[in-house]
């Protein structure tokens, strides 16, 4: 995964990624569900040094100890997830990409926290 770009709903915040992806997956944790008002959130992780943000500056919210979630101050679109456990990485939302065809989602995180009414019929590894 190289040369990816994306933006928030109003296009006030844009980003470009140049460099390899580290991982990509669907997160089912309650915190991500509440932060996005969605039953599942899909992230891809890259080295922080490989991401350039343009336009407006992200506003950040400390959603739990050591976790910062970046969002557009104008439209509220969630844009990033950052954790002190992985200071050299940043997680970005696959849904914010202009073209996500280069991202290979290959796992589920926090499978035990998934909502019961959403069927995920795939053979991806499911981690708790």
Summarize the topology.
Blueprint: E1 4-7, E2 13-17, E3 21-27, H1 30-36, E4 41-47, E5 51-55, E6 59-64, E7 67-71, E8 78-83, E9 89-93, E10 108-109
Parallel strand pairs: 3-10
Antiparallel strand pairs: 1-2, 2-5, 3-4, 4-9, 6-7, 7-8, 8-9
Describe the structure.
The chain has one helix and ten strands, in the order E-E-E-H-E-E-E-E-E-E-E. The chain is mainly beta and 128 residues long. It has a single domain (4-113), classed as Metal Binding Protein, Guanine Nucleotide Exchange Factor, Chain A, CATH 2.170.150. The strands form two sheets. Strands 6-7-8-9-4-3-10 form a seven-stranded mixed beta sheet. A hairpin with a 5-residue loop joins strand 8 (78-83) and strand 9 (89-93). The two termini are 26 Å apart.
List low-confidence stretches. none
What coarse outline follows from CA principal-axis ratios? Answer: globular
Task: Give the CATH class.
Answer: Mainly Beta
| Tally of distinct domains | 1
- Residue share in helix: under 10%
Order of helices and strands, N to C?
EEEHEEEEEEE
Question: How many DSSP helices?
Answer: 1
Overall structural class, as computed from helix and strand content, comes to mainly beta
What is the CATH third-level topology name? Metal Binding Protein, Guanine Nucleotide Exchange Factor, Chain A
Number of strands: 10
Rg result: 14 Å
- What's the architecture in CATH terms? Beta Complex
Average pLDDT, rounded to a whole number, is 96
Strand order of the largest sheet: 6-7-8-9-4-3-10
Q: Per DSSP, what share of the residues sits in E-state strands of 2 or more residues?
A: 35-45%
The first-to-last residue Cα distance is: 26 Å
Main sheet characteristics: 7 strands, mixed
InterPro entries: CENP-V/GFA, Mss4-like_sf
Protein name: CENP-V/GFA domain-containing protein
Pfam families: GFA (PF04828)
Keywords: Lyase, Metal-binding, Zinc
């Amino acid at each position: 995964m190289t040369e990816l770009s994306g933006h928030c709903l109003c296009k006030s915040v844009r980003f470009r990624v140049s460099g390899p992806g580290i991982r990509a997956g669907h997160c089912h944790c309650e915190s991500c569900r509440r932060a996005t008002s969605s039953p599942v959130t899909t992230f891809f992780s890259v080295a922080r040094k490989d991401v350039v943000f343009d336009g407006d500056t992200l506003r950040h919210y400390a959603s739990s100890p050591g976790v910062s979630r970046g969002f557009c101050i104008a439209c509220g679109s969630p844009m990033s997830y950052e954790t002190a456990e992985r200071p050299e990485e940043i997680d970005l939302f696959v849904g914010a990409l202009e073209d996500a065809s280069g991202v290979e989602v290959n796992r589920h995180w926090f499978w035990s926290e998934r909502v019961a009414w959403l069927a995920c019929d795939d053979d991806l590894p499911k981690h708790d």
